[in-house]
């Protein structure tokens, strides 16, 4: 191992070490210094409540924006005289990297594209199959027959397995498809500057105004190539049929993205998003050997433009599938693996440090702030639920009679209960907000499901216990131990 | 966008402010500090937590009524001695002196307020002489010497009925003991041992008739059931003997005792008898020792018993 790789290994070890140290120190304090532990937990819980209330307010702001822009005619906005460039010159390259998804998943995604109000002769669609999927050719044949005449071009690509320097990741497949797209656009004489690329998860169904909205944001941006365009992911495709557990987890994920959309300085691309195709080519596409391609592509662009790159939130939703399986245990496993994959985004930390070391033009304060945001979000993800759900009761458990007979020992459980009761108030807001983005109830779903969907929020503490921190801690531990993850294609189920 | 980010900044800094302003108060409350507005200082205090059975009692602290009812915590008390009185209508009051320390919680959690007029209720439905309660099954057994009958009822006295009979002994028996499986009862006085059955209607084997044995060889001090529900261990003023609980059974002597008024306890989980016996040393002095005999099924074979005797 050379010097640099030793340094990178140290950076890989650091996040997990911090998270584990926090947890171990707190447990040790609970055993040997219960008073100190209880004081730290009270401070942490108070901080967490304030933070939850603050983030809930941001969530309300994001919802407000979403509601404001819900029925906006974006194509009409594109015709605004203030916009110098003609929106009709803009082409959209849409890539759907897919692996195991079947036709029941892929077809609705293409149907949604077809139903968009943006001129279809400006849409180039690439269904990016993995060559190792034995059904790829068969599925491609069926979809080509159905959609080949609906867009400017409909292309199927087959990403070969085991290319040098690649691992089995979505980014590798998307990159292969994007290179084909570049070749195609070049043949057609379309300038890269006029192309916006959208990389969508295979189950992504866009709203009819999506490309109008995207084009508007692109054209009105003073530096259109120096931005990624992030729609708000919701998981409405199968939400009425998914299990309560999975539904709540995915609703929480949507909430997180909505909150992040307000915190612009921390906002990083996630899941399905769009960006300038020119920029994508300039940065040499998505990473082909990293799992968190959606965020790494942002960091690559950020480094390429010396920090002058941002994510523009688009308050328009893209709908995806709630990941669930045939029974509760399998659903928990599917969700756990999906969250662990997301938490593997901590691999961005060494990538970013390495990148920052080469970029002297980025101000040091910016570098420190971005590194802190990245590290803090992942560390707090890995420890918060464990502190609140597991470590918080330990001072009482290990404190003995002496601790119980102190003012702190008596007040501690009362204060923690009181503080956590604040979150119940916040949860009513979450329930109300979750209803506003819910699609209409399908005819095959009984009305009682609506009641269940309100009552199911009582299981949130169970979800926090199972999925709150453990996937993130798992991911950081794997990175710490050098047990690198492979891309896990989340299992998708949809009622046929 | 600008306005939205300004609102967000305002929210952010407000949250930071609330955190740093609220934290000292939350921590001081948790740690038992009281903020004195006059001196503008935090003072260390303690608290008393009072929980009563039944709840809802009024609390008096140094004869001042507290505006709260049990269970309740009286907080922010300066260190020192307090007289606590708890009152509830129709119950005896409880009072006590409590020492409150700095940052300490005095937990008065086990206060039972007893009623002024306790509810006394007659349980038995008929005449009886002695009773036994089997808590596990919720049964009261009544022994009636007059008709030598065994009766049962539930714990409220309902469902009273005769279930079995026994052979009377004279003078009347001292103690009654159930076998571990609750099917048999042994009763005895100083020189007689009787065995009967708790369920007279149950189909029994030939040996399962009630019977009485004489014990002329000494004074019976205690009798224990073996865990097999079949053997009885008899401790008398002369020896420890074992016998089968069947008519005409003969005694096997396990230990001869020097001590006349021995004390014995039987652990039927381990089938071990613990007893005291005295030992005379060469210098003429007498010591009491505690002995034990293993009476597990394995050890109850005759050679094992003889071995115990040989060891004596």
Descriptive notes:
- The complex is a heterodimer of chains A (496) and B (312).
- Chain A has a domain at 92-319: Spore Coat Polysaccharide Biosynthesis Protein SpsA, Chain A (Alpha-Beta Complex), CATH 3.90.550.10.
- Helix content of chain A is 57%, strand content 10%.
- Chain A has helices at 3-32, 34-68, 74-78, 103-114, 136-147, 170-187, 210-220, 244-262, 277-282, 293-304, 328-343, 348-358, 364-391, 394-404, 407-436, 448-455, 460-468, 470-481, and strands spanning 91-97, 123-130, 153-159, 195-199, 205-206, 227-234, 273-276, 310-319.
- Chain B is mainly beta and 312 residues long.
- Chain B has 3 domains: 2-31; 41-112, Immunoglobulins (Immunoglobulin-like), CATH 2.60.40; 166-311, 7 Propeller (Methylamine Dehydrogenase, Chain H), CATH 2.130.10.10.
- In chain B, 13% of the residues lie in helices and 45% in strands.
- The chains are: A alpha/beta (496), B mainly beta (312).
- The interface between A and B is medium-sized, with 27 and 27 residues.
């Amino acid at each position: 191992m050379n010097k640099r790789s030793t340094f990178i290994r140290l950076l890989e070890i650091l996040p997990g070490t911090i998270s584990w140290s926090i947890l171990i120190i707190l447990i040790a304090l609970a055993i040997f210094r219960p008073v100190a532990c209880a004081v730290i937990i009270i401070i942490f819980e108070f901080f967490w409540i304030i933070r939850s209330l603050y983030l809930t307010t941001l969530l309300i702001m994001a919802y407000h924006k979403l509601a404001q822009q819900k029925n906006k005619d974006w194509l009409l906005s594109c015709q605004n005289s203030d916009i110098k460039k003609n929106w009709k010159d803009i082409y959209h390259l849409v890539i759907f990297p897919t692996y195991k998804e079947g036709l029941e998943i892929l077809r609705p995604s293409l149907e949604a594209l077809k139903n968009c109000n943006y001129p279809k002769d400006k849409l180039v669609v690439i269904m990016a199959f993995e060559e190792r999927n034995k059904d790829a050719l068969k599925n491609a044949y069926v979809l080509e027959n159905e959609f080949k005449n609906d867009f400017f071009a409909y292309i199927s690509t087959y990403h070969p397995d085991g290319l040098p320097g690649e691992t089995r990741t979505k980014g590798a497949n998307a990159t292969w498809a994007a290179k084909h797209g570049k070749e195609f656009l070049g043949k057609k004489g379309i300038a890269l500057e006029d192309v916006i690329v959208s990389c969508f998860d295979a189950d992504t169904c866009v709203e009819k105004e999506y490309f109008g909205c995207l084009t508007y944001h692109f054209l009105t941006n003073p530096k259109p190539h120096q931005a990624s365009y992030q729609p708000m992911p919701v998981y409405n495709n199968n939400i009425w049929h998914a299990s309560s557990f999975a539904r709540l987890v995915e609703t929480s994920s949507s909430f997180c993205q909505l909150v992040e959309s307000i915190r612009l300085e921390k906002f990083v691309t996630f899941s399905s998003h769009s960006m300038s195709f020119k920029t994508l080519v300039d940065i040499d596409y998505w990473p082909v050997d990293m799992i968190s391609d959606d965020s790494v592509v942002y960091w690559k662009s950020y480094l390429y433009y010396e920090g002058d790159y941002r994510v523009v939130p688009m308050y328009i939703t893209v709908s995806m599938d709630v990941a669930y399986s045939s029974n509760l245990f399998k659903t928990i496993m599917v969700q756990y693996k999906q969250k662990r994959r997301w938490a593997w985004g901590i691999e961005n930390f060494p990538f970013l440090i390495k990148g920052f070391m080469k970029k002297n033009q980025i101000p040091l304060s910016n570098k420190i702030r971005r590194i802190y945001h990245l590290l803090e979000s992942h560390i707090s993800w890995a420890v918060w639920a464990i502190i609140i759900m597991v470590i918080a009761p330990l001072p009482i458990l290990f404190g003995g009679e002496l601790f119980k007979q102190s003012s702190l020992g008596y007040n501690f459980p009362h204060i923690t209960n009181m503080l956590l009761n604040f979150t119940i108030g916040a949860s009513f807001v979450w329930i109300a907000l979750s209803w506003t983005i819910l699609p209409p109830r399908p005819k095959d779903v009984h009305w009682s499901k609506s009641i269940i969907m309100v009552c199911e929020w009582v299981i949130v503490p169970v979800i926090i216990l199972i999925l709150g921190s453990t996937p993130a801690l798992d991911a950081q531990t794997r990175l710490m131990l050098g047990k690198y993850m492979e891309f896990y294609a989340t299992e998708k189920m949809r009622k046929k | 966008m600008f306005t939205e980010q300004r609102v967000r900044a305002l929210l952010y800094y407000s949250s930071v402010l609330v955190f740093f302003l609220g934290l000292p108060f939350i921590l001081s409350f948790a740690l038992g500090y009281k903020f004195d507005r006059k001196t503008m200082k935090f003072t260390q205090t303690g608290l008393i937590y009072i929980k009563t059975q039944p709840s809802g009692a009024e609390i008096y602290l140094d004869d001042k009524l507290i505006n709260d009812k049990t269970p309740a915590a009286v907080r922010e008390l300066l260190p020192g001695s307090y007289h606590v009185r708890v009152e509830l209508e129709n119950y005896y009051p409880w009072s006590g002196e409590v020492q409150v320390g700095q940052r300490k919680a005095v937990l008065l959690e086990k206060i039972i307020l007893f009623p002024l007029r306790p509810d006394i209720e007659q349980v038995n439905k008929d005449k009886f002489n002695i009773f036994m309660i089997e808590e596990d099954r919720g049964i009261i057994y009544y022994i009636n010497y007059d008709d030598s009958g065994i009766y049962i009822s539930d714990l409220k006295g309902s469902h009273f009925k005769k279930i079995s009979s026994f052979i009377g002994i004279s003078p009347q028996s001292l103690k009654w003991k159930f076998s571990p499986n609750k099917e048999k009862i042994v009763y005895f006085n100083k020189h007689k041992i009787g065995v009967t059955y708790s369920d007279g209607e149950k189909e029994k084997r030939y040996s399962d008739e009630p019977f009485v044995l004489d014990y002329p060889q000494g004074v019976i001090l205690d009798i224990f059931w073996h865990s097999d529900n079949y053997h009885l261990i008899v401790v008398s003023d002369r020896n420890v003997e074992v016998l089968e609980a069947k008519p005409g059974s003969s005694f096997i002597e396990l230990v001869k005792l020097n001590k006349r008024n021995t004390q014995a306890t039987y652990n039927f989980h381990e089938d071990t008898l613990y007893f005291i016996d005295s030992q005379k040393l060469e210098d003429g002095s007498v010591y009491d020792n505690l002995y034990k005999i293993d009476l597990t099924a394995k050890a109850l074979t005759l050679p094992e018993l003889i071995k115990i005797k040989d060891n004596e």
